[in-house]
Amino acid sequence: MYTTNAWYRTHGYHPPFDTWFVLMWVTFLIMVTGYFGFSLKFIEEDRYYTKEFFIEDGGINNVHRQKSTWSFLGILFSSIIIFTCMKVSLTDTSDKRVMKESKERDMSYAMVKGIPVVVDGWCSICKSNVGSGTRHCKFCNKCIQGYDHHCRWLNCCVAESNYRTFILFVISTFIASTMSLWLAINAIGMYFNSESKYNYELILHNILPSSTLNTVFFGLFINILLILLSSIIMAFVGHLLFFHIRLYLMDMTTVEYLSHQQQRKYYSDNYEDEDDENPWRRPYYHNPRKRWIMSVIRKFYKLSRCCTRSMNHKSRDRVEYVHNV
């Protein structure tokens, strides 16, 4: 991955850029262009929305036009997404103790996938003692304080210093993708409505260049593309948001959860002991209320699964439970 351990990423916009990071910005530009340059145009001329949302009192409209409302919401959430994305990527997540000591890094240490760099609170590359929540990220090649996970979409690590901003970014992205999906469905709905089909074709001719061949077909292609992109983003980000809500209820970080799952595969799900000295075999939820909430969520999750998971677990000596991440 790296030619020397002297290199480390200072922030998310420090090259090399991850492919997913570039794809994220390309997708964002496509969605913003599609929202303001395409989907939003169909609300202005749609008589149904004029009749449904415009309340007339003495011949005077006392509600703003729907286009103005959706434009404001689009600008608002686009700005929040840009701001939070930049803030998460530019926030310094480095371990302050390591940066303060500024020891010479070990240039001969070779990072191997699956083998932790930090063992028993000692980082083999930074050559420093670190806190219990600090991990050495192999993508950024530096120790991260309060490490949660490395986000390839933002090309940086998510940790205690930028976690709240990251959650705000996820929430705003989910809302924005939902709005985009709704407008795209509304636009294509005009085409399949006999009363508004003519307006749909008229708006397409105003949006697309006059030289465009088969304007209606090209417009429908753009419309369907926006629906697919919005649906994929909404589903992916919604799942991510639900996952982090679950982590909050469990009072765990992403890396702790993944490590817990890795350990747990060796044991039966029915083996949970409050007094077990092995923390990885204790129940997730020490708070009774959280335990009840997550038991309900788990039941709904199991009902929604198409196939049941095999409950066969590998046998392992329960004494050997020390796990360094």
From TrEMBL:
Q: Which GO terms describe its biological process?
A: protein targeting to membrane
InterPro entries named among the record's database cross-references: Palmitoyltrfase_DHHC, PFA4/ZDH16/20/ERF2-like
> What do the Gene Ontology cellular component annotations say?
endoplasmic reticulum; Golgi apparatus; membrane
Q: Catalytic activity, per the record?
A: L-cysteinyl-[protein] + hexadecanoyl-CoA = S-hexadecanoyl-L-cysteinyl-[protein] + CoA
Query: Which locations, inside or outside the cell, does it occupy?
Result: Membrane
Q: Which domain of life is it from?
A: Eukaryota
Q: Which UniProt keywords apply?
A: Acyltransferase, Lipoprotein, Membrane, Palmitate, Transferase, Transmembrane, Transmembrane helix
Q: What is its main location?
A: membrane
**GO molecular function per UniProt:** protein-cysteine S-palmitoyltransferase activity
Instruction: Tell me where in this chain the Palmitoyltransferase DHHC domain is found.
Output: 122-260
Transmembrane segments in this chain: where? Answer: 20-38, 70-90, 166-192, 216-242
Which enzyme type, at the first EC level? Answer: transferase
**EC number assigned by the record:** 2.3.1.225
Pfam families hit by this protein: DHHC
Q: How does it sit in the membrane?
A: Multi-pass membrane protein
**Domain writeup:** The DHHC domain is required for palmitoyltransferase activity.
Would you identify the family this protein belongs to, as annotated?
Belongs to the DHHC palmitoyltransferase family.
Protein name in UniProt: Palmitoyltransferase
